[in-house]
Amino acid sequence: MMDHKTAREMARNLVSQMTLEEKASQLRYDAPAIERLGIPAYNWWNEGLHGVARAGTATVFPQAIGMAATFDEEGVGNVARTIASEGRAKYNANSALGDRDIYKGLTFWSPNINIFRDPRWGRGHETYGEDPYLTSRLGVAFVKGLQGDGKYLKAAACAKHYAVHSGPEALRHRFNAEATPKDMRETYLPAFEALVKEADVEAVMGAYNRTNGEPCCGSKTLLMDILRKEWGFEGHVVSDCWAIADFHNHHHITDTAPESAALAIKNGCDVNCGNTYIHLMQAYQDGLVTEEDITSACVSLMATRFRLGLFDPDCEYNSIPLTDNDTDAHDAGALDMAQKCMTLLKNDGVLPLNPEKTKTVLVVGPNADSVACLEGNYNGTSSRYVTFLSGLRAACREKGVRVLYEQGCHLTRKKDSGLSQREYDRLSEAVAAARYADVIIACVGLDATLEGEEGDQGNQYFSGDKNDLELPEVQRRLLSEMVKTGKPVVTVVSAGSALRVTEGNAILWAWYPGQAGGTALARVLMGEVSPAGRLPVTFYHGLEELPEFTDYHMKNRTYRYFEGAPLYPFGYGLSYTSFDYSDAEYENGRVSVTVANTGKMNGDEVVEVYVKNESPFAPLHPALCGFKRVHVPAGESVRVSVPLDRNAFTVVNDDGQRVDCARATLFVGGSQPDGRSLELTGKKCLEIAWEK
């Protein structure tokens, strides 16, 4: 792949031919053409969180939090490779027609590697969960898959939002996130460091907020001292959209737009998503920036375009046709990840469904026939959506099982029809149908209109943070009435975050599973696939257990520091089969263990390794330091080798320094080594004593 040095040399040569005004014009996200130099227009703004987004038909994979639940690095990398291929296919077709508009470029502002530290945060479902190590590994896999290994970058990835960013959404334009040196280095920065050092991520996006007093998109500490000098980052930095305008409008760090532009560019922000950099020439005339400041940023951006092969008519990716988008193979990949993300939290034996005993199924709930609950946010538009209802109907038809359907309730409103004379106007229909059913499948939860990004001029709709951890009241009423019928109830929840859901004979967390969600759900419920998803976040009993949303200290947050007993723990998930662990060993940075499938069904298992260092600076509970998803046929055993975090036997002290430890205990199993996981699974983790 073209190295950064070569790309910068080529970029410097091209930029040296530009006027100062032309250089400044290239620092906007919607960079205009410079026809005299043969430089076409380029729009830096594109999205590819779980499929090419907002650019017409594309394969829609499970939302990022759902992919995190797979604990599958290889699977996430494959998703990213598909995004890159479909992105190139679209870019080639659109640019041939002169269409270089927003969402048509090759610089994808993904992945989101912020830590999902509080379940209220609306954008948490864009992340890989609450754990720094899981986030790092899946983020690295995504970036490597997206950027490829050819002569040029197949697409450019972007690590966002740097840094210490996870709500509240309503305050993000003026909020100052205060984080201790320990929390910075132990929790908030490791994933960004990994993506820079291990995956050579091409771009980093600054966050809206301030971190410890500095606006992130103009932070000398974050952008210059840590990102570029300490970590050796060689790509470009982009602002979040209209974040630089927040400097003077909301943070009041500066007084004017030229001052804000100057602060950002001098501290290493190369391209502005927004319109503040139109004031760069005024800042130059006022003596706030030099020509070299503008030149340096322009070189960084042109270097990325060279690394993408955008100035090479013989670029290896130029021949990818539009027909490489939305293919059967990509749909199969979406189904594979949807199946892998399904996370079984409770099962009294009702699952998998037995067609010999289950002749009629009632599918009920506002998410039963919903496309929105498949998508999440930052999504594309699939041509192949399979809702839960349609997937179940197709699967049941093959097995001779009758499917009844009733909506049961609206997603949030007590009346689905404005003309109805009673509340819960769809409820009696569901109760009536339940009398004829052997099993009720209740499809409840949220969608991106209820949890997501704060609405502003850079977003397509408003949603924001959650107010609590409950299902909407109307859905709770529906679930309660279904349980009262006395029929077995399988509760299927579509959501991108933790909720307090306890009703049902079985509870399956479907996340936002993408275009093939209905097929995946049907295969899991009917027992064609054994669920093996794991929770990438802690499920709490309620908000009263947590610190204030605005408190960024890690005390009593996430599984590593939570002082109570969770409803469902991080790393937890049930299966239709059973696994036994034996002969765990540690050697040369890897844990080896034998995993036996002692049940009657083939299945995947997620091997999890946690470490508890003997140090006063260690987290309160053992921390994830290794994982691997493996397939084990029924009655067979496999020897699994799990690479550990290179920092597994270190801790971060209160000054933010990483120091070595002399002794530790490793825990190996299919869950955390905590009391709640033991209570839910009945399985105790193996232990390995380690000494330096």
Structural features, described:
Strands 9-14-13-12-10-11 form a six-stranded mixed β-sheet, sandwiched between helices. A four-stranded antiparallel β-sheet has the order 18-17-22-23, with no helix packed on it. A three-stranded parallel β-sheet has the order 3-5-8. It is of the alpha/beta class and 692 residues long. The chain contains 20 helices and 23 strands. The protein has three domains: 4-318, Glycoside hydrolase, family 3, N-terminal domain (TIM Barrel); 328-537, Rossmann fold, CATH 3.40.50.1700; 579-691, Immunoglobulins (Immunoglobulin-like, Sandwich), CATH 2.60.40. The chain is globular, with a radius of gyration of 25 Å. Helix 1 (4-15) packs across helix 12. The model has no long low-confidence stretch (mean pLDDT 97).
Topology of this structure?
Blueprint: H1 4-15, H2 20-25, E1 30-31, E2 42-43, H3 64-69, H4 73-96, H5 132-147, E3 158-162, E4 176-177, H6 181-188, H7 190-197, E5 203-206, E6 210-211, E7 214-215, H8 220-230, E8 236-238, H9 246-251, H10 257-266, H11 280-285, H12 291-307, H13 328-341, E9 343-347, E10 360-364, H14 372-375, H15 388-398, E11 402-406, H16 427-434, E12 439-445, H17 473-484, E13 489-494, E14 506-509, H18 517-525, H19 558-561, E15 579-587, E16 590-597, E17 603-613, E18 623-632, E19 637-643, E20 650-652, E21 658-660, E22 663-669, H20 675-681, E23 686-691
Parallel strand pairs: 3-5, 4-6, 5-8, 10-11, 10-12, 12-13, 13-14
Antiparallel strand pairs: 1-2, 6-7, 9-14, 15-16, 16-19, 17-18, 17-22, 20-21, 22-23
Helix pairs in contact: 1-12, 4-5, 4-13, 5-7, 13-18, 15-18
